[in-house]
Amino acid sequence: MSEKFDVIVVGAGPAGTSCAYTCAKNGLRVLQIERGEYPGSKNVMGGVLYRKQMEEIIPEFWKEAPLERPIVEQRFWMMDKESVVTFGYKGLEWGVEPFNNFTVLRAPFDQWFAKKGVEQGVLLITETVVLECIVEDGKVIGVRTDRPNGEVYADVVVLADGVNSLLGKQLGYHNEFRPDEVALTVMEVINLPKGKINDRFNLEDNQGCTIELFGDSTKGNLGTAFIYTNKESINIGVGTTLSSMIKAKLKPYDLLDYLKTHSMVRPLIEGGESAEYLAHLIPEGGYHSVPKVAGDGVLLVGDAAQLVNAIHREGSNMAMSSGKMAAETIIEAKNRNDFSASSLNLYREKLYDSFIIKDLEKYKDAAHTFENNPQYFNDYVPMMNRAASKFFTVDGTPKREKQKEIMRSITGERGTFKVIQDVYRAWKAVK
Amino acid sequence: MHIVVCVKQVPDTKIIKINPKTNTLDRRSAPAILNPYDAHAVQEAVKIIKMVGGGTISVLSMGPPQATEVIKKSIEIGADKGYLISDRAFAGADTLATSYALSKALERISKEEPIDLVICGLHAIDGDTGQVGPGIARRLDIPPVTNVIEVSELNEKEKTILLKRKIANGYQLIQADYPCLLTVGKEINEIEYSPLPNMIKAARYEPVIWTVNDLENVNRPQLGLKGSPTIVGKMFTPPKPEGGMKLEGNSDEQVKQLIELLTDKQDLFFTHVN
Questions:
Q1: Is A191 on the interface with B (CB under 8 A)?
Q2: Closest CA to B186 of B38, B7, B34
Q3: What range defines the domain where residue B88 resides?
Q4: Cα–Cα distance between A256 and A261 in angstroms, integer?
Q5: What are the distances in angstroms from CA A335 to CA A160, A315, A329, A347, A370?
Q6: Under the GO molecular function aspect, what terms does this record hold (chain A) (predicted)?
Q7: Alpha-carbon distance A127 to nearest alpha carbon in chain B (angstroms)
Q8: B260 domain-assigned
């Protein structure tokens, strides 16, 4: 029989590596299997790394991790065709220790993170695809890879194999996505000199800025676009649910081209050289889509467990925390020498007791509400733009009259009752 | 049977950028990989050991500590052991000093287990000289056979090896006595998809690392920059080819044009061998 480990972790993204790292640090024998050429070669996200959850795994990681810029400013843009209403916050307290969030490029960051795991004793192998879990009497006892003599065994197999989690599907833990449960995001990394980025975004060398764009950035479809500043490049991307794309007959790359040439966006990226083009599915089903996360000898973490908060674009932090919780569960199970479903179910309890499921529960109907009520993106964002334009245009009309006119035009367009209903519905969805 | 394969960590020249001002390689722009020819050398060693029914494959490399990565890669392909010689004294070596240092390391390895074959890649993709292999053979006083494309037979009793070697207009069959040194190109074999146990072994493997003090009878002035008479006069990016033409029209028209071209200007496309 092939070698047996305490834990096999499938995947070397934030969830898998957090789990592998924590297990190895506590003396467990861990094999981590990654299909890409190196950790991070297949991994995609917008580019924001959250400090808090990363720090819980590696304290003061910012002193050595390959980060881009600490984010000192978050902007929100409500875009119309030729205008934008902006809102944001910039605070220098985010630019000093312990920082708030960082922009990162995933390829170098994930490699660094995985290397930290290896330093703790994780055996990491790459370019190896796990084809299936080996199941015996209903219990997962190992994995079968695509390599010759490719079976390997463990007390617990952790599935950190990402959004599509083929292994999770094979086990019957979750089903194929419905088109409204998943968003397709396409993004580009655009190289720009440091000085140009600093000038265009009003930043200094070690300051970063994020912009979330709503409204016309997705041609009014349910979704958002983003622009994040790295040291010498910009991440720009846009994502909408598959169902909106199907409904509006949109192609994702057309949407990204539309965004890049939008009059409000173009000046920010002008003259840049496109360095990378990436696409990724993002699980946005939220609370209702979370599958069974623990079984006999198996746990699901990160995207594989559909742990993404679409409203706050949080995912990597949930991945890391879930990986850590899985590791803690395995360590306790090892002490009891019991890897049954009931023993490993402690992971589910931890997850449901944490910010992860609490946040997903809070927004459990939000995506649904916004999807079924396109007026939020289609009508209100342009309305806001028209209202702002009207209010700030100096044309001799008294301001009070302008306010009245604006209110009239809003309630006039949708009707007073409808507006009240929309406000209530939105509040209910995110309360 | 003990085979030692010499391997080198090189920048991936498919990706590497050349600084247009200084004409030097920007080594940070490309990941470091196992020299592709050396991968075939390790694979051939695996094949030979399988052919003779057993033995040991050691790999040897010279370089900074991160060169352990290419030794691990060789373990994935099927090597049993790895040695890295790593010391500031070796730094800045050209092919002369490199082959000297490697031959000293090979002498040390042969004391642990006598060496029957040394296999090197045809050349490294960063330097492209192909001198280190023959340089080692000369210093160890064993015959070098370059550009081997097939190892046909190995007679352990007679200590002979039958080789096919690529030459300008065909190939040559050679029977050599071993110990000898072979250099191999890419056509000698296909790199096999490594079995999982090799992958796990490689992830766990820590090669033996020797400094200059671990080697015996070393004449220090022959090492590193001091032992390297090579002077790089000039480096340049090859000019982009000029001229040429693009065929236009639909595929039928293009094929017709191409046939006309091929028949009209035969001397451009075919070399006549008399």
A1: no
A2: B38
A3: 2-222
A4: 9
A5: 23, 30, 10, 15, 46
A6: oxidoreductase activity
A7: 10
A8: no
Is residue B208, in this structure, part of any structural domain at all? yes
Domain membership of residue B232 (yes or no) is: no
Map out the domains of chain A as residue ranges: 4-68+104-174+291-353, 182-283, 367-430
* pLDDT of residue B271 exceeding 70: no
- How close, in Å, is residue B67 to chain A by CA atoms? 16
Contact check, Cβ <8 Å, B196/A124: no
B16: domain CATH number is 3.40.50.620
Q: What angle do CA B227, B230, B231 make, to 5 degrees?
A: 125
**Residue B205, min C-alpha distance to chain A (Å):** 10
Classify residue B250: in a domain, yes or no: no
Cα of A33 to nearest chain B Cα, Å: 10
User: Which residues are paired to A33 by β-bridges?
Assistant: A10, A125
State in words which class domain A4-68+104-174+291-353 has: alpha beta
Q: What is the residue-wise DSSP string for A293-304?
A: -EETTEEE-GGG
A150 touches chain B (CB under 8 A): yes
Indicate which of B17, B69, B196 best probes the interface with A, i.e. most A CBs within 10 Å of its own CB: B196
Q: Going residue by residue through chain A, which has 431 residues, state the pLDDT in tens, using 9 for 90 and above.
A: 578 999 999 999 999 999 999 999 999 999 999 999 889 888 888 889 999 889 999 999 999 999 999 999 999 999 999 999 999 999 999 999 889 999 999 888 999 999 999 999 999 999 999 999 999 999 999 999 999 999 999 999 999 999 888 899 999 998 788 888 888 899 999 999 999 999 999 999 999 999 999 888 888 787 889 999 999 999 999 988 888 888 888 888 899 999 999 999 999 999 999 998 999 888 887 888 888 999 999 999 999 988 888 777 788 899 999 999 999 999 999 999 999 999 999 999 999 999 888 888 888 877 777 777 777 777 888 888 888 888 888 888 888 888 888 888 777 777 777 778 777 777 777 67
Nearest by CB to A31, from B193, B200, B202: name it: B200
Instruction: List own/partner pairs for B110-113 with CB under 8 A and 24 or more apart.
Output: B113/B2, B113/B56, B113/B58
Does domain A182-283 sit in CATH 1.10.240.10? no
Strand A151-159 versus strand A139-145 pairing type = antiparallel
Count the domains in chain B: 1
Through-space distance between the first and last CA atoms of chain A, rounded to whole angstroms: 54
Nearest CA-CA distance, residue B90 and chain A, Å: 28
Residues of B in contact with A145 (CB under 8 A): 196
Name the residue type at position B99: S
Find, in chain A, the residue whose alpha carbon is nearest to that of B203: A123
Mutate to test the interface with B, among A34, A119, A147, A191 (most CBs of B within 10 A): A147
User: β-pairing, A233-241 with A182-191?
Assistant: antiparallel
* Interface membership of A374 toward B (CB under 8 Å): no
Q: Which residue of B has its CA nearest to A148?
A: B195
The rounded distance, in Å, linking the Cα atoms of A29 and A13 is 19
From residue A324, give the alpha-carbon distance in Å to each of A45, A49, A223, A299, A429.
20, 16, 30, 12, 30
Above 70 in pLDDT, residue B273?
Answer: no
Grouping H, G, I as helix, E, B as strand and the rest as coil, residue B28 is helix
Question: Of A181, A140, A187, which Cα lies nearest the Cα of A306?
Answer: A181
